[in-house]
Amino acid sequence: MSDSQDQISSTPVVSVELLADNPDLVSAIGEMRWREWGHPPEPDSLDWWVDVTSREAGRDDLPVTWVAIDNLGQAVGAVGLGEFDIEERRDRSPWVLGMIVAVQRRGMGVGGQLMGTLESWARHHGYSRAWVATGGRAVDFYQKCGWELAELINRPSGEIVSILTKSL
User: Fold this and answer.
1) For 24-79, how does the pLDDT look when each residue is reduced to its tens digit (9 = 90+)?
2) Which partner from 22, 57, 78, 158 sits 20 to 30 angstroms from 51, CA to CA?
3) Element holding 76 (H helix, E strand)
4) Domains plus CATH for the chain?
5) CA 55, CA 34: separation in Å to the nearest integer?
6) Confidence (pTM)
7) For the segment 100-149, what is each residue's pLDDT rounded down to a tens digit?
8) Using an 8 Å Cβ cutoff, are 131 and 96 in contact?
9) Is 154 exposed, middle or buried (0-12, 13-18, 19+ CB in 10 A)?
10) b (16+ CB within 10 A) / e for 73-82
11) How far, in Å, CA of 114 to CA of 110, rounded?
12) What pLDDT does residue 2 have?
């Protein structure tokens, strides 16, 4: 890799800040999540997604959410960390929640920045391991970020959920 490429890849793509410090972006993140997941078996109400995003916008304790903000002040992604995610695995904590990057910004390092911030915060708050429940292409994303597949859960709906974990 040339020096100029190395400089580009080490330059932050966006700023990553607490959503609690940017409450004006809650609706944008809620809508982004709704567009991605707002269909059965998940809730299909935009208001539900905005409300959950607002409730997960903590600062010092779980749940906490970070937002990726571009140079125009627009939300281009978010990720949360919460005590629980799926009912089948309430014995493990904390869990990555609502990891989303705007479609047009995927593959540009935004997700990696969000995960790096989340992992650092978790480590500094005494967590030695974190978990995520996901599926599809997201499994590859988490594995590229150093997460390891721990198990597969077959849900009654027929959905197969991948559980990944990472030592922090």
Assistant:
1) 999 999 999 999 999 887 889 999 999 999 999 999 899 999 999 999 999 999 99
2) 158
3) strand 75-82
4) 3-167 (3.40.630.30)
5) 15
6) 0.87
7) 999 999 999 999 999 999 999 999 999 999 999 999 889 999 999 999 99
8) yes
9) exposed
10) eebbbbbbbb
11) 6
12) 41
Q: State both tokens at 100.
A: 């989303």
CA distance 49 to 55: 10
Helices and strands (H, E) in the chain, number of each type = 5, 7
* 46-55 vs 26-37: helix crossing angle, rounded to 10: 130
Four-point Cα dihedral 77, 81, 26, 18, nearest 10? -80
Chain centre distance of CA 153: 20
Q: Tokens in use for 37?
A: 């997941």
- Cα dihedral sign, 24-82-160-164: positive
The secondary element (H helix, E strand) that includes residue 130 is: strand 129-134
Q: Which residue has the tokens 């992992």?
A: 119
